[in-house]
Amino acid sequence: MNDDTRLFTQPAGYVPVDTALDRAVVLLAQRNPFVLAAHSGCLYDGGTFRVPFFNQTCLLSFPQGEGDSLSPWLRLLILHYILTADGTAVEEQWISYRNLPGAELFGGRFHNLALHSLAQAFSRDLAGFSRAGQALGGIAMRLGDASCRFNAFPRLPLVCILYQGDEEVAGSANILFDVSVPHYLATEDLAYLGEYLVDTLKGLK
Question: How far apart are CA 40 and CA 26, in angstroms?
């Protein structure tokens, strides 16, 4: 894992987005863009990274780290992914958020804004989940009562799993990450990534 990730693992709320962006851009300018592209699985050409993100392709300039159509949060997440990626192979072995390094700092946010929100929206609407997942570029899997695999970034897959509820038992959900994920994003960033995924799925419902 690249040592630059130490700048990105402070508890949520400690570093304003603008400050974190400034730090990430400084680091970007110090790196070889072709090496960054090779490690992250992105394309680099003519001073621009082309970064697949779920069902879209985001453009990020080098060395400025600018993205005209990107929100500050998404721009920061892409920068963190590119800077952290070290080319470690994806293993297709899945772990939960609580097994990630430092998860105790951000687990509450991830549970409330990702897992609980996902279960509330879809545990009794599996067909709606399947439609939303497909619209976001997901591929159905045979886990739980419904599940979908996504490529958030080229080398960062994740899986959403739903367990159906009824009048007596509340539904539940989980989001699993490949065991290689610490080599691509810090645990704090993954909490925000999960929140983004669930909010997007709800918007596509």
Answer: 18
